[in-house]
């Protein structure tokens, strides 16, 4: 009987140590703060676009990019950034398609150039 009881105590002790060591491995996660819906609301209300979502669409001057932009602009919950290589062509397309100028902004972006991508990201960050 003593050996069974001693074995059980040793097993419980080993399991307790294992659990404590596992908990130490996740200690770094204690500083992570998961945003609540209230936190997200505070961020959104302080932004330039209020409760609208900001969508960046590449190739907005033709094809699928143009169709996606038209669809997003029909829904009033979005402000669309049209990332294009040719801003002049985009101005004409936006005028012909009747894009809402309050909810659409064209910005230059050439995805084949890292410099262009970096500049676009900086401009987008400043725009927000």
Describe the overall structure:
The chain is of the alpha/beta class and 128 residues long. 55% of the residues lie in helices and 14% in strands. The protein has five helices and three strands, in the order ααβαβαβα. It has helices at residues 2-25, 37-46, 63-74, 87-97, 114-127, and strands at 53-58, 78-84, 104-108. Strands 1-2-3 form a three-stranded parallel beta sheet, sandwiched between helices. The radius of gyration is 27 Å and the shape is elongated. The model has no long low-confidence stretch (mean pLDDT 78).
- Cα(first) to Cα(last) distance is 72 Å
Strand order of the largest sheet: 1-2-3
Poorly predicted parts = none
What would you call the structural class? alpha/beta
| Largest sheet entry | 3 strands, parallel
Mean pLDDT comes to 78
**Rg estimate, integer Å:** 27 Å
Residue share in helices?
Answer: 55-70%
For the secondary structure, the number of strands is 3
Instruction: Write down the secondary-structure element order.
Output: HHEHEHEH
Q: What is the molecular shape?
A: elongated
- How many H/I helical runs? 5
Strand proportion, as a percent range, falls in 5-15%
Oligomer: single chain
């Amino acid at each position: 009987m003593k050996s069974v009881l001693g074995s059980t105590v040793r097993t419980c002790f080993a399991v307790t140590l294992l659990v404590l060591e596992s908990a130490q491995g996740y200690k770094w996660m204690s500083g992570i703060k998961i945003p609540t819906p209230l936190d997200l609301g505070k961020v959104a209300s302080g932004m330039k676009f209020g409760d609208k979502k900001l969508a960046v669409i590449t190739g907005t001057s033709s094809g699928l990019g143009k169709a996606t932009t038209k669809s997003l602009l029909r829904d009033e919950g979005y402000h669309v950034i049209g990332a294009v290589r040719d801003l002049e062509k985009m101005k004409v397309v936006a005028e012909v398609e009747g894009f809402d100028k309050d909810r659409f902004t064209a910005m230059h972006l050439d995805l084949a150039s890292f410099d262009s991508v970096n500049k676009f990201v900086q401009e987008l960050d400043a725009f927000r």
